[in-house]
Amino acid sequence: MKPVLYFFKQLYAYSGKKLHINLIGMVLISFLDGIGLLLLIPVISYSGIANFETGNSNISKVFGFLQQIPTFGGLTIILLMFLMINIIQNLITRYITIENVKIQHGFARHLRLEIYRDLLCANWDFYIKRRKSDLINTITAELARVSAGTNTFLQFITGIIFTFIQIGIALLLSPQITMFVLLSGLVLSLFSRGFIKRSQKLGSRTSEIAQSFLAGITDNFNGIKDIKSNTLEQSRMNWFRSISQRMYNEQMEYITIKTASQFYYKMASAVLISIFIFLSVNLFNSQAAQLMLIIIIFTRLWPRVTGIQASLEQIATTVPALKSVIKLINESKNAKEIYELDYQTIQPINIRDGIECKNVFFRYNTNENNYALNGINVFFPSNRMSAVVGKSGAGKSTLIDLLMGLNQPEKGEILLDGVRLSKDNLLSLRRSVSYVPQDPFLFNTTIKENLQLIYPDATEDQMWEALQFAAADEFVRKLPQQLDTLIGDRGIRLSGGERQRLVLARAVLRKPSILVLDEATSSLDTENEAKIQEALERLKGRMTIVVIAHRLSTIRNADQVIVLDKGEIIQIGEFGHLAREKSGMFRNLLGKQMEAVL
Ligand SMILES: Nc1ncnc2c1ncn2[C@@H]1O[C@H](COP(=O)(O)OP(=O)(O)OP(=O)(O)O)[C@@H](O)[C@H]1O
Question: Where is the ABC transmembrane type-1 domain (predicted)?
């Protein structure tokens, strides 16, 4: 129940006045509905089907005034009232339906925006601990279920209000019959708790299957090349078949529970009404008028009771989705690192002396003993090129993630010109960094728009200059529409090297003061690598460059080379100097690469 309350509070905070107006509208409709129902009685009386005796009964008191009106006029008045009530009732119903949909979708949009903003503002650690497909699933499928749940919840409130007012009217007409219906409803609701529990369990399974489905599909298309080249189609098809079957079973189970509970209620209704009529006629000698009332009250009140039950079951299936959305909201809020998205006004940092790692320790999992970085002390001088090398898993990417403030040291500190890197200067640092990752990201749009992504105000001349720097101008000129050429999903229409050069051009376009390259030249041929090397050489005095390189030839001109092994710095110095250290790992790495080339 807690998650439902949480969302109700959120919904209330979001819709406020609108929800009040809707509630008043619902009360009005219920009253009008009740009056319409009451009017049926004199109509029946006039028609002569049954006679509601005058006297002391509640009904005769309500309709006593009608006796003053001549028969023909009375019926006309009643029918006109009936018509008016129906028109007003339907107009309000239409208004409320539209307003409820507005509340439902408006609330979903509000939640979506909030969650997306929180996700964008969450730190890197939040992302490395989660599957991307789970995040996608929560903000798409689970949120859609929450939105549908909001609708059910609004229906539930409507149901409750209607029921209470109908109960009031029914009590006015006949307290005994109403009490009987209510007691029966209560007894049945005790039996139906099982349905609600089963619905909730089913809802958890729905969430879990949807999560696995999206994760599997995402992996499938991300790894389609591997699937094709390793003939894994058959096994993927088997996986797909099995998860589709689970989805089918789950839908079938859902409909089985739903129809079972509805069947149960409808049968109970038929049995109860039969018993009641039987008892009324045989034991209490009720008249036609009373029997009419029994049927009217039963047929009006009972569907409300079953409607509430159906809404409760549906809300129960939504609870797991509510829980996972709440979890995501809380976790992303706890991982907040950006407090104001409009950070264009934040000035980039201009590093004068350099960036220093002082006794830095970092591990990905604080429950484990393994440190990815273990007591790192190093200085990256400004406007110089530093290269980080080491075997796979040595901690190179982790180190530059810390330099960019993506992760924070567990112990020790990162100093920018002597000032500790903290949340106060984090965005200034990020605004001065351009980063080229191992697996660079290109949008499925034109080259121009991909370049503008980093620097929206760039002129075409500046773009060509950046492309030339990255040795990418030649291939872009050869493309049919040059800068306006569409490059396909994630740049798939370009070769690996072309993609890398384009991303490099994008990185230098905004002339950052810090350029971080993670394996940025790994897909380049020797000729283009040499061009990049020259370009980096030209930039050396103008920006601080940090390069991770497996291909050691790229960093031949680096001002300092940092050799990492198992999270520790084991060598540091100039390329030539390290190359001459006979027992050093750098020479070893270099030797292995030379062997590979030969
Ligand atoms: N997200 C993560 N969660 C847990 N451990 C991680 C994570 N990323 C890296 N590690 C671990 O931290 C250590 C350093 O990894 P890192 O990626 O920094 O190495 P690297 O030198 O950049 O390797 P490579 O050259 O293969 O990219 C490795 O032992 C790795 O398994």
Answer: 23-317
- Mean pLDDT, to the nearest integer, of 418-447? 83
pTM of the model: 0.76
Look at residue 598 in the predicted model and tell me its pLDDT. Answer: 47
398 lines ligand 1 (CB under 6 A): yes
- 211 and 243 Cβ atoms separated by less than 8 Å: no
167 within ligand 1 shell (Cβ under 6 A)? no
Write down the pLDDT at residue 245. 92
How many Å apart are CA 463 and CA 403, to the nearest integer? Answer: 28
Work out the percent of the chain whose per-residue pLDDT is above 90: 5
Q: Is 390 in the pocket of ligand 1 (CB under 6 A)?
A: yes
Query: From ligand 1's centre to the CA of 395, what distance in Å?
Result: 6
What secondary structure letter does DSSP report for 139? I
Q: How high is the pLDDT of residue 359? A: 92
- Asked whether the CA dihedral 487, 492, 493, 494 is positive or negative, the reply is positive
Give 432's Cβ-side CA count (13 Å radius).
23
Which residue's CA lies nearest to atom 3 of ligand 1?
A: 364
At residue 504, what are phi and psi to the nearest 5 degrees? -65, -45
Residue (of 178, 177, 208) closest to 284 by Cα position: 177
Instruction: Give CA–CA dist 219/200, Å, rounded.
Output: 29
Residue 492: pLDDT band by 50, 70, 90 thresholds? low
Structural domains for the chain: 2-334 (1.20.1560.10), 384-394+432-597 (3.40.50.300)
ipTM: 0.96
Q: Whose CA is nearest to atom 26 of ligand 1?
A: 392
| Spacing, Cα 566 to ligand 1 middle (Å) | 10
For residue 555, the CA-to-ligand 1 centroid distance in Å is 21
| Closest residue CA from atom 30 of ligand 1 | 393
